[in-house]
């Protein structure tokens, strides 16, 4: 045990008031150029202000090399990948450049930064695919369909002399196919003159293996891209992080990376804090953290955790900060959906490690840094090395980094405890008896299927590679698209975010995409049947309202309350207490009319039906691991139609479900989304399977997916009845909770060669 005298007392921080220097009684105009991103601070009293771009020495070396070579750049966190791309574009004004990125938000920022250069453009990989194949490519599923069809890529624009590929450690086989297709197409357009290639990335930031990503697309780029560009390859490293301080970089290098000088900080800052606490004592943690949040501001604060959806201690802490201290919080909607900058503005960000990749804040509080992480999130890792996800989370802070460890868990097994004391302030909240020593490293990674005790159906298909979802659905299901999306003009358009504070200096927004879906089904239910099971409440208050708008407002508010209860987070509900909630008033009536065209008037419907299978069992290679789990969730609508009874009885009488033929029963999943997906298919099929087991049915009911927003409707038919539904659930669980076999280097290179050959054949080269 570490004795109490080894812990350091940390002074509380006061709000800081900063005065700008004045000139003739007015604030002196200054341009603040961030040196680490290739800018410098200069005073400028003129009306016209221009940012002066000054590449660092490392960036200048890359610029010089890429004139004659292809370049692979190992760019550590905060080392200025976008600035490097700009430096290349600026250095070669007579050459055309394209920068391809994964993240849409980063692409927008990059496009704005390169706007002054006429010789460059940026695009997401999917956006570029749309240009290459002359169709909209919103996701990997559509991209894969194009690949399977063998469509020939055609580039009708001007060719590029240089292609810059960002975050290549996140590349998948389908994206590599797209890269090969793109470079082959622009080479053809340039009369077989291949472009030079610059690839950027960091193997330690490879965190999307669950999507099929492989960091070797970055590290082995010279080997796998030989057929794309004949130029010699050179390697450069950017290790000076303009985001990180000396203190934070030393903490990460020495405590988590075994002393490797992987990142070099660029300025002084506060020592990191290693906070040892009872994580359910939210008040004491909040009191400790509050001065830091007040010092740096809500907009410069982030809470990061392995998961934010099912994290009661984090939910309790965030609710305490919101309710008791009035801290504005951007409430998380999921563990994986993109973070909206408008919603984040002026608020504390609560995010999963994965969601926050590519972002940064001055104050970052990282939860989940303990040995429990290897039991819940990283079972396939040995425990002797820092997980990439942990590394990403630890490298997001520009100033103050705070690591939170639960007193019920031990430190991560690979931590250097001597360096922890040397590089961080260890703070213990309460009488916890000191920080335990970590367990000895060397646990064996377990790639086998290990089921959690409980799985929510709504989570089942998350973090499963789209190609695996496609294989599961193709093998076991027939998906009949019985209604195509309506024309854009007929879509029911409701805002996904709403303005809650119109003050020009603040302009706070809240995400309401989930409320739209809840309110749409609830409005249909209460106006058609007089019940409100969708929101698990009595409809009496609604029926007393006569005005259409006041009814819509009431429903949206109740949907917001229901969502807060379901998610465990209260900030959005608190922050919307004064909002007029009228954003969906006209849309609710349209949604109800659309649902009425789908659901027969003479049918009896049950809404928000609780479904559960307590002992779903699977074979497991490892005998000492759990083979059973509880599947649970709520089906949106179950429709019963019994031809032997009249309309009034069907509507009001209690049904004996066992006496109703499965063909007269339909399970509906109602969505209000941009488009339906295979994740939704897995979800509704899981509900159908649980329903069949609960009611001992040998034949499945009708299974229907309906998107209220655009009218698209799918019917899912299991090829082998209930047995196929079970296999869908089994294979989804296997894909989610076991680790796919990693290809050997030889196998990986062979696969890449086959992909490149596939593209050459399609382009008519072979």
Automatic annotation (TrEMBL):
Species this protein is from: Periconia digitata
GO biological process, one term: recombinational repair
Protein name as annotated: DNA helicase
PANTHER family: UVRD / RECB / PCRA DNA HELICASE FAMILY MEMBER, UVRD-LIKE HELICASE C-TERMINAL DOMAIN-CONTAINING PROTEIN
GO-annotated molecular function: 3'-5' DNA helicase activity; ATP binding; DNA binding
Gene Ontology, cellular component aspect: nucleus
